[in-house]
C-alpha cells in the first residue's frame, strides 16, 4: 500500500480551505488576504505572517538547535505539509497549531540541524501563503468560511546530507516566540525518482471524458466538476501545462479541494497561455486502491502534486502537499 499523504494526517482536519465553481469570468487582481474570513484579528494576523523579518528571530551564532529551542515557549504543534525532501534546496511547508487545535498565525521561521545537539542553521523566514480562493472558484468539498485554517507557511531550505534532520518551527504570537520541534527524512537526489525541475515530463496520457467512456464521476470527484481534463500527452510540447494530481472528494489530507479550486482560479487568469489539467488519483475512485497510470508514471506516492511544464516539455516547478495562491501562481509563471 502506498503512503498517500501519510505525514499530512497530523493536520488532516485542519489544513483545509474554503472551496465553488464558476470559471467563466477572469479574476480581478485582488489581494488573497481579502478572501480570509473577516473575524476579529484574523486578516491582520495572516497579513503580518506574509512578511516575516529574518532579523526578528534569534541569530544562530554557533548555537545548537537545542540551544535555540530553549529561547522560545513550547506548546504549539507543527504539522509538515510534504513528504519528499532531498539533499540540496527544498520547499518546506508547514502549519502551526495551538493546544486547542486552532492555527497560529504570525511571522514564522524555521531552523534545521542534522541532530538537536548539533549547530543550527537558520533562521529561514517562512511567509504565509493564503489557501482561500475567490468565492466563485470554491468547491463544495472544501471547507466553509467558518473553518479557521486560512494559510500555509513555506520556505526554502538546503539540506547538506541525507538522513534524519531535526527542525524547529518558530512563530511570533501574542507578543512572544513559540516553538515546535519535528523531524523529517532527507533522501539523496538519486533516491528521488519523481521528475524534478529541469527534467523532461513523462509524456503520459491523462484521463479524459472520452477515455473514460463518458463517466463524469470517474473523471472528476470535484463538485461542481471542471473542464480541466484534456490529455496531457496531447498538450505537452505544444503549450505550457499545469498538471495537478488531486482527488477533491477522496483526499486523505483534505487539501486537494483547495488546490483544485486554486487551479480553477489560475485557469481563469492564465488559461489562454497555459493548459490546466486535473487528474484524479485512485483507480475506480476507491480509496487506497491502485494509483491511476499517470501518477505511476510520475512516481508520486502522496497527494496532491502540481507539475508545471513549459512549452518544450521541461518541468519548471513541482509542488507537493499544501500550497497556496502565491506558490501556485509563481509555479505557473515559471512555465510561461
General description of the model:
- Helix 5 (256-270) crosses helix 7 (325-334).
- Helices cover 15% and strands 24% of the residues.
- It has helices at residues 42-49, 65-69, 216-219, 232-235, 256-270, 293-298, 325-334; strands spanning 73-74, 77-80, 88-97, 108-113, 121-125, 128-130, 151-159, 163-173, 176-186, 241-245, 275-279, 305-309, 315-320.
- By secondary structure, the protein is α+β, with helices and mostly antiparallel strands.
- The chain folds into 2 domains: 6-190, Immunoglobulins (Immunoglobulin-like, Sandwich); 216-334, Glutaredoxin.
- The chain contains 7 helices and 13 strands.
- Residues 195-336 form the Thioredoxin domain.
- Residues 1-16 form the signal peptide.
- Residues 23-60 are annotated as: Disordered.
SSE layout:
Blueprint: H1 42-49, H2 65-69, E1 73-74, E2 77-80, E3 88-97, E4 108-113, E5 121-125, E6 128-130, E7 151-159, E8 163-173, E9 176-186, H3 216-219, H4 232-235, E10 241-245, H5 256-270, E11 275-279, H6 293-298, E12 305-309, E13 315-320, H7 325-334
Parallel strand pairs: 1-9, 10-11
Antiparallel strand pairs: 2-3, 3-7, 4-5, 4-8, 6-7, 8-9, 10-12, 12-13
Helix pairs in contact: 5-7
Amino acid at each position: 500500500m502506498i503512503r498517500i499523504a501519510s505525514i499530512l494526517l497530523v493536520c488532516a482536519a485542519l489544513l483545509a480551505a474554503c472551496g465553488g465553481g464558476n470559471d467563466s469570468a477572469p479574476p480581478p487582481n485582488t489581494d488573497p488576504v481579502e478572501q480570509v474570513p473577516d473575524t476579529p484579528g484574523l486578516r491582520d494576523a495572516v497579513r503580518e505572517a506574509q512578511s516575516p523579518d529574518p532579523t526578528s528571530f534569534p541569530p544562530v551564532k554557533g548555537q545548537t538547535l537545542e540551544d535555540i529551542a530553549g529561547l522560545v515557549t513550547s506548546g504549539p504543534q507543527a504539522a509538515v505539509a510534504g513528504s519528499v525532501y532531498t539533499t540540496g534546496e527544498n520547499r518546506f511547508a508547514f502549519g502551526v497549531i495551538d493546544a486547542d487545535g486552532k492555527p497560529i498565525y504570525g511571522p514564522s521561521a524555521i531552523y534545521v540541524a542534522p541532530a538537536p545537539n548539533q549547530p543550527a542553521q537558520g533562521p529561514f523566514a517562512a511567509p504565509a501563503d493564503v489557501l482561500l480562493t475567490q468565492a466563485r472558484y470554491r468547491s463544495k468539498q472544501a471547507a466553509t468560511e467558518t473553518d479557521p485554517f486560512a494559510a500555509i507557511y513555506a520556505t526554502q531550505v538546503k539540506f547538506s546530507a541525507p538522513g534524519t534532520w531535526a527542525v524547529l518551527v518558530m512563530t511570533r504570537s501574542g507578543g512572544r516566540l513559540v516553538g515546535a520541534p519535528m523531524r523529517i527524512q532527507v533522501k539523496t537526489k538519486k533516491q528521488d525518482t519523481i521528475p524534478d525541475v529541469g527534467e523532461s515530463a513523462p509524456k503520459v496520457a491523462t484521463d479524459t471524458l472520452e477515455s473514460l467512456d463518458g463517466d463524469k464521476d470517474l473523471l472528476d470527484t470535484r463538485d461542481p466538476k471542471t473542464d480541466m481534463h484534456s490529455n496531457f500527452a496531447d498538450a505537452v510540447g505544444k503549450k505550457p501545462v499545469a498538471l495537478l494530481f488531486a482527488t477533491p472528494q477522496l483526499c486523505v489530507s483534505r487539501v486537494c479541494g483547495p488546490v483544485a479550486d486554486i487551479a480553477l482560479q489560475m485557469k481563469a487568469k492564465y488559461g489562454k497561455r497555459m493548459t490546466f489539467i486535473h487528474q484524479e488519483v485512485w483507480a475506480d475512485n476507491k480509496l487506497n486502491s491502485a494509483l491511476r497510470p499517470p501518477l505511476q508514471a510520475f512516481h508520486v506516492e502522496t497527494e496532491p502534486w502540481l507539475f508545471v511544464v513549459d512549452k518544450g516539455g521541461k518541468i519548471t516547478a513541482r509542488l507537493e502537499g499544501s500550497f497556496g495562491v502565491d506558490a501556485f501562481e509563481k509555479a505557473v509563471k515559471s512555465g510561461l
